[in-house]
Amino acid sequence: MREHAEPDTSAARRDAPPGAAMAGAAAGGGPTAARAGAEPATSHAGAEPATGHAGGKPATSHAATAAGAAAPEECDLLVIGSGAGGLAAAVTAAFHGLRVIVVEKEPVFGGATAWSGGWMWVPRNPLARRAGIEEDPEAPRTYLRHELGNRYDAARVEAFLENGPRMVAFFEANTALQFEAGNRICDIHGATPGAGTGGRSVIAAPYDARRLGALLPRLRRPMRETTLLGLGIQAGPDLAAFMNATRSARAAWHVARRVGRHLYDLARHGRATQLVNGSALVARLARSAADLGVEIRVSSPARSLIVEDGAVRGAVIGTPDGERAIRARRGVVLASGGFPHEVARRRELFPNTPTGHEHWSVAVPSATGDGLRLGESAGGAVDRTLASAAAWCPVSLVPWPDGTVGHFPHIIERAKPGIVAVRRDGRRFVNEADGYYDVVAALLRATPPGEEAAAWLVCTRAFQRRYGLGVSKPAPVPVAPWIRAGYIREGRTVAELAAACGIDPAGLAATLAEYNRHARRGEDPEFGRGSTPYNRYGGDASVTPNPCVAPIETGPFYAVKVVPGSFGTFAGLKADAEARVLDGAGRPIPGLYAAGSDMASVMGGYYPAGGINLGPAMTFGFIAGRHAAGEAVAGVAATGLAEAGMAAADAVADGASPETAGGGRASPGAAGPAPPVAAAPARGEAGRAVRGAVA
């Protein structure tokens, strides 16, 4: 029977007292010295199939000999998965002196993060405060208490809110990861007490992928459906310029420069190098990891965990030469992206999915529940009590000319004036300008048992030419190919459109007549489009009096079909405020951490704001890395050396040198003075040498 694991008794803390800062590594050597432009430590294990754990649930190995006769490799921390959560943990732990290996089963790294919009919800972040937005610390707590209700996990919410700003400050001060503010982005439910109207969002600053050097070929390319010929477009001024390229000379010049550079990159590098959104986040984290000596191994699926005396000591990894054990002195971080493409678990946990196939996620196909199965094999438990198992979003199925079918997430156009969503009966069922999660939740509620959960976004050709519709881009990009492919249905009249879509014609005609009667005055009494700051932020400010409402009157009319999809999953392994995986009795499993979608969402299965996936992923990855390195975690009870370590970490994040912030770092398992620490270069240069690298 496992004894109750106190914070300082896990395998991850065995070699050092709580709060002791660390540098170097135990036997086997420490990370390479950080330097600007250091050659990245990336390896390619070979053509290992990217299918995860063959045969379903992986076995748990109880000895290093489980991987055969080869001597096991050793490191301090092993991270399974290479998205935001995993890389945040790796970089944080390496900065604090641990030798870290990241394994990724795909031949490319970046996970679902590389396909994401990249926004992170981090209330009271340093960028907002530098912009003069000083928020009452109780405001985000109040918002989450009301939004999450009885699923409000006070300990984990506190850890997230306390460590989120510290996470941003740490990466800004010490790594290649720099941020831009989203200070105008509103929380989704503006009527909820504590809702923010800005200052809670950050995104990675754009990044020149050429700075990745040898890492670049292994970086996952952006999602095909959300790019322009592979070129990512960032929400905000960049997107606004692309949408106004035919209306503004300044916008046209911006677009010409971006596209011209992209065409050069395609000819020279075969891919985009102007990285934005989630691609920029992953690239900056990978550059930071390489600068700190972290090794990222692709085509290296984790097969099983090594568990000894109830503690996780490493994992067995697939290689071209067979399975090999990697022992991890301070533990393993599970960050493999959740289970959006695991059919069996979808069938169990998703509504309206009787076979498990009635769901279309925009997450990478390799996110098939590996981390959850590994965690369960070591005694962890998946939280099945969340309000929702997935981060819903409406998607349309994109028929590409090569015969593949893509999944497009409908985020932007739903809030623009002149579009409605209807079911097959022709009736609206939701405020289309609300959050993507809310739209799908409403669709699922409105769908009778046994009926397909689907809706049609209905607009005019003029709307599509102005704002785009799904994967079809606005003018001057041609729309005809998408009509010929059947992705967009067209009708000269409302009746023709209804017939083309299989919508009840009388129901659609009645819905549009009633909607238009109010829309001419900028009103939507039925669902209240434009009634919240979030709605209006997504609308078109040039349309008055309501930026989200305009009539749908003059044909031809267009429609695209949308179905339930997701950005990823919420139902993950139960974990505590220090990112430690919990067993069935609620006790931490020594040496096992979870981050990203492998951890049960701190939001309880709700979606209160954009960025509530990546914000917690980065924050709990940061927490896991600190805890594995023996550093204290803000918002979690700590005494003695742990308190000193937290104070020193805060001082370093605020710009103090590691020496003046609380003493040098102790080498794991060793006494005596800390090794020399490099001085910090000037702030503001992305990709600069990382402060605090062990000489």
Automatic annotation (TrEMBL):
**PANTHER family with a match to the protein in the record:** 3-OXOSTEROID 1-DEHYDROGENASE, FUMARATE REDUCTASE
Specify the domain of life of the species encoding this protein: Bacteria
Molecular function via GO: oxidoreductase activity
Low complexity: which segments have biased composition?
Answer: 32-41, 679-695
Query: Could you tell me the Gene Ontology terms of the biological process aspect for this record?
Result: steroid metabolic process
Q: Where is the FAD-dependent oxidoreductase 2 FAD-binding domain?
A: 76-614
Q: What is this protein called?
A: FAD-dependent oxidoreductase
Cross-referenced NCBIfam families: PRK06134.1
Alphabetical UniProt keywords: FAD, Flavoprotein, Oxidoreductase
Entry cofactors: FAD
One Pfam family per UniProt:
FAD_binding_2
Alphabetized InterPro entries for the sequence: FAD-dep_OxRdtase_2_FAD-bd (IPR003953), FAD-oxidoreductase_2 (IPR050315), FAD/NAD-bd_sf (IPR036188), Succ_DH/fumarate_Rdtase_cat_sf (IPR027477)
Q: Where is the composition biased (Basic and acidic residues)?
A: 1-16
Region (Disordered) residue ranges read: 1-65, 654-695
The organism is Roseomonas acroporae
